[in-house]
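Regression test case RT-17, inverse folding.

Input:
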């Protein structure tokens, strides 16, 4: 049986483990990126890595495409170039919950997007281009070698201590992407763990749990709670990986 092929643009903290996960479950994965240094690394992992110039892409026609590129110079043009080169029937794009404004209250996929305008325009390219498009609005990323608590460690008088966190663990993202590709699930979906403690309590306890220098937030501010339940209902699953480092939170 012929393996289903997928092009993955972007091979960073999220793209690399995604490529490995998709290879493990049976996809023929072609990673494209601008870094020649990554070619040998990906070859050692059994993955095809093609060095490309996003301004002059060769034809890469595949049925499925995933774009995991962070915003950069000429971002919208690059995304359009990738879509034109791959010409997929299904495209998946990792966006961010930063598309929502920093207002207080709950937001979902139907809320007005008054945040990051570049990502909003990038989402439109995905949703209006291929026959089927899906957008994942990811919360703050945590996982191997990545925890925002490290950024706050040792700092005091940090603002917005009462604002809720909107986080997602890498492991859940990998699992959701696998299911989305299997089902060709389209549309916009928030990917955010349903646990939303205040930044003050969460990061102060995370610093302790990770053995870092403590941080101290001011007990003020507010912010949005991003509802990520639409995706789990559509996939008939749950968020499985906790966003706390160890033990019970409280």
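Golden output:
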């Amino acid at each position: 049986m012929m393996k289903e092929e997928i092009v993955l643009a972007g091979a960073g903290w999220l793209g690399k483990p995604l490529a490995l996960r998709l290879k493990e479950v049976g996809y023929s994965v072609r990673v494209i990126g601008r870094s020649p240094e990554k070619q040998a690394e990906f070859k050692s992992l059994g993955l095809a890595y093609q060095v490309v110039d996003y301004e002059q892409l060769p034809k890469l026609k595949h049925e499925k495409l995933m774009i995991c590129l962070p915003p950069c110079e000429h971002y919208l043009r690059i995304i359009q170039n990738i879509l034109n080169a791959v010409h997929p029937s299904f495209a998946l794009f990792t966006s961010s919950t930063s598309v929502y404004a920093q207002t207080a209250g709950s937001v979902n996929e139907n809320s007005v997007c008054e945040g990051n305008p570049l990502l909003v325009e990038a989402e439109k390219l995905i949703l209006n281009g291929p026959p089927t498009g899906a957008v994942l609005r990811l919360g703050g990323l945590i996982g191997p070698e990545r925890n925002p608590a490290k950024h706050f460690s040792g700092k005091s008088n940090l603002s917005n201590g009462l604002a809720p966190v909107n986080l997602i663990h890498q492991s859940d993202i990998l699992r959701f992407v696998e299911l989305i590709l299997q089902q060709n699930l389209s549309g916009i979906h928030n990917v955010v763990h349903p646990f939303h403690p205040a930044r003050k309590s969460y990061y102060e306890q995370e610093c302790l749990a990770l053995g870092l220098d403590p941080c101290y937030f001011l007990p003020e501010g507010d912010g949005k709670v991003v509802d990520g339940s639409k995706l789990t209902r559509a996939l008939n699953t749950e968020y499985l990986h906790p966003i706390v480092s160890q033990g019970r939170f409280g």
